[in-house]
C-alpha cells in the first residue's frame, strides 16, 4: 500500500488549533495543524527524537510512548485528541539521570543491534509490565497472570525488531520485570 | 492528509448534532481512522471526537447482562473480571486482535466500525468498489487469499476484520445507537451491490453501547484464531464458540466465524444441526459441513474451507 498521492488541485487550507499537553513533565502550549500526529509533534516541534517513525501506520511499534501511563502508538495519535494528556517518551523513562531498570537490562543483555526500534521497545515494555502487574490478561494467559517468556513474546508483538534481537529482548524484559 | 476541523463533543446529543454535517465523521481511538486518513482512503472535513463522552463504563443491566459503553477501550473490556467470568470468549477475542498498544486506545464502538484490510481498499491508486463505488474489484482476480469465502458479491469480496465482533455475534449481543437498538447480527451488511456500506447505520448515527444478554452457555466459551503469524495478525479463520453439554448431548450452543465474510458470521446452520445431537467429533464435523456447504471460495482461498471445518471441530471438541 502507498501513501496518498499529492492531489493536483489546490489543497484546502489547514485548520489550526491550540493544544496544551505535558511531555516528560514539562507543560507545552502549542498552535498546531489539526492533522499533526503526536509522533511528529514530539520529533519536529519538541526535539524529543527518541520515539521513531518506522511504518507510520501503527504496525511496527517504533513510535510507542506512554500516554497517561498507557502505552500507545504516537503515530496514530492526533495531538488535538490528546489535549491535557501526560506523555512520557524514552527520554522521560530515566528518572534523575539514572537509567530505568529496563534500560540497564537492555544493555546487559544486548537487547538490540541497530537500535532504531529500541525507544519503542523500552516504552512498550514499561507499559506492558505495568499491565501485567495490574493483572491484565493476554491471549496466552491461562489462569493467573504471571510473567513468562511466552507472555513477553505475546504482549510485545506490537514491537517489530528487523535486526531480530528478540531472544535478548525477552531475556532483558524478563529480568527487568522480575 | 486532507485538512479537517476538529470538535470535541461534551455529550452524545452534541456529538450527533455536530456529526450531522456533511463529510463529518466520529473519532474514537483513531487506530483505524487516522491510518485511513493518512492513506487518503477516508477524507473527513470534520472530526467529532467522542472519546470524552460519558460512555467509558461497563455496567450491570437489570436482566443480569452487561452494558458495554461504546467508549470502553479494548484492553479494559478484555480485562474486565465480569466479562472474563461470564463471557470468556469475548475477552479472548479482543486479546487475539491487534497489539497491546492498539488495544489500549481502540474503543468498542470503533472496533465495530473498523474497515476491511483488503489491500485494494487501502490503496487509493487501485480501483475498489467499497472505496470508490463503480470503479471495480481487482481482488476477485488478484490478491484475495485472505478474503471472503461466504456471502461475497461480484462487487466486493472483502472480509470484516474484527475479532471482537465475532464473539459478540456468538453472544446474541445488541447494539444501542443514538436512535435505536438492533441485534449485532443486523449491524453489518453483506456487500451486495452496495459494498461502500459496511453497516446499516445512517450518517451521523452514533453507537452508544453494546448490550450482552445473560447467557449461561457463554461461561463455557472459547475464541480460537488461525493466522499467518503467532500474534498481531488478522484472522485467516476464527471461531467463537460456546457449548453446554448434558448427558453427552448438545443442550445449548453458540457458534460464529471470523475471517470468512463481509460481516461476523453466525453459524446458524451448524447450530441447528447440533442442537440435541451427540456432542461428538462426528456431529461437530457434520455441523461444520452443513455450515460450509454455502462456501464459494475464490481461486486462491479454497484452503479456508478445510481450515474453518477443522477449527470448528477442534474448538467444539475442546469445549465438549
Strand content of chain A is: 15-25%
Q: Structural class, from helix and strand content of chain A?
A: alpha+beta
How many DSSP H or I helices of chain A?
6
The tally of structural domains of chain A comes to: 2
Form type of chain B: globular
Keywords:
heterodimer; A: 178 residues; alpha+beta; Ubiquitin-like (UB roll); DNA polymerase, domain 1; five-stranded mixed sheet; 5 strands; 31% helix; 15% strand; B: 320 residues; Uridine Diphospho-n-acetylenolpyruvylglucosamine Reductase, domain 2; Enolase-like, domain 1; five-stranded antiparallel sheet; four-stranded antiparallel sheet; 12 helices; 29% helix
Explain this structure.
The complex is a heterodimer of chains A (about 180) and B (about 325). Chain A is an alpha+beta fold and about 180 residues long. Chain A has two domains: about 15-90, Beta-grasp domain (Ubiquitin-like (UB roll)), CATH 3.10.20; about 95-175, [2Fe-2S]-binding domain (DNA polymerase, domain 1, Orthogonal Bundle), CATH 1.10.150.120. In chain A, about 30% of the residues lie in helices and about 15% in strands. Chain A has six helices and five strands, in the order E-E-H-E-E-E-H-H-H-H-H. Chain A has a five-stranded mixed β-sheet. The longest helix of chain A is centred in the last third of the chain and has 16 residues, at about 120-135. Chain A starts with 15 loop residues before the first strand and ends with a helix. Chain B starts with a strand and ends with a helix. A five-stranded antiparallel β-sheet of chain B has the order 4-5-8-6-7. Chain B has a four-stranded antiparallel β-sheet with strand order 9-10-11-12, sandwiched between helices. Chain B has a three-stranded parallel β-sheet with strand order 1-3-2, covered by helices on one side. Among the domains of chain B are: about 1-50, Uridine Diphospho-n-acetylenolpyruvylglucosamine Reductase, domain 2, CATH 3.30.43.10; about 220-320, CO dehydrogenase flavoprotein, C-terminal domain (Enolase-like, domain 1), CATH 3.30.390. Chain B has twelve helices and twelve strands. Chain B has about 325 residues and is α+β, with helices and mostly antiparallel strands. In chain B, helix 5 packs antiparallel against helix 8 and helix 11 packs antiparallel against helix 12. The chains are: A alpha+beta (about 180), B alpha+beta (about 325). The interface between A and B is large, with 48 and 42 residues.
